[in-house]
Amino acid sequence: MEIHEALYTTRMMRRLRPDPIPLDTQARILDAAVRAPNGGNTQRWHFLVVDEPDLKRELAQLFRQGRAVEYEKFATGAGPMAAAAPGANLTQHAETMRRMKGSGDYLADHFEEVPLLLFVFAIDDLGGANIFPAIWSILLAARAEGVGGVMTMVLRNFEDRVNELLGVPVAEGWTMSAMLALGYPRGKWGVAANRRPVQEVSSRNRWGTAFGIDVPAPLWPHDYLAPAVASAG
């Protein structure tokens, strides 16, 4: 897959088919992950895959409880994503949250059917500086394999119980960064059309000064090397 197709069409997929992901596919995805840049090449990460049905059922109960906790916060205007970003369209934000809740509800209701759960752990990660490039590599590599996924931190609401279930050696300093639900998607891939354009979220040299060029529409697939944009650099 061409790199720009992967970058432009990889999105969070919460509606996943139960079809198993072959082991060789899983290996390719994680082999890409361990090539991700990380500070000092210390590789302070661990990837734990879960496909055991009984374990997934226990995690599903925790996941549903965790979502209830998150949406209680959301209903009171607390927690991440409750408020729109400065300058964002409030109507569009509300619609995005409505759609995200719908797909999130589907994931919660069908959690036991997700073929592969991937827990990502790190040690002393400085806010995710080392692990999140690896997570993005996982999602891009999965996209190249036709596998969809979504990163979620919902289970961190019950981190101690999850650590117990998974046998995590927390005394060594391992901390759950996130969990990814992976599977072949029920939906279609596509370029995200609801993004604010580059010039609205970018500045040059000082906050609030013009970036210097407008990008009114996605540049891939047709205009990625448009002369006016290519010459801007």
From TrEMBL:
Signal peptide: none annotated. Residues 10-184 form the Nitroreductase domain. It comes from the Bacteria. The keyword Membrane does not apply. Keywords: Flavoprotein, FMN, Oxidoreductase. It holds the Pfam family Nitroreductase. InterPro entries: Nitroreductase (IPR029479), Nitroreductase-like (IPR000415), Nitroreductase/BluB (IPR050627). One of its GO terms (molecular function) is oxidoreductase activity. This is Nitroreductase. It comes from Mycolicibacter nonchromogenicus. The lineage of its organism: Bacteria, Bacillati, Actinomycetota, Actinomycetes, Mycobacteriales.
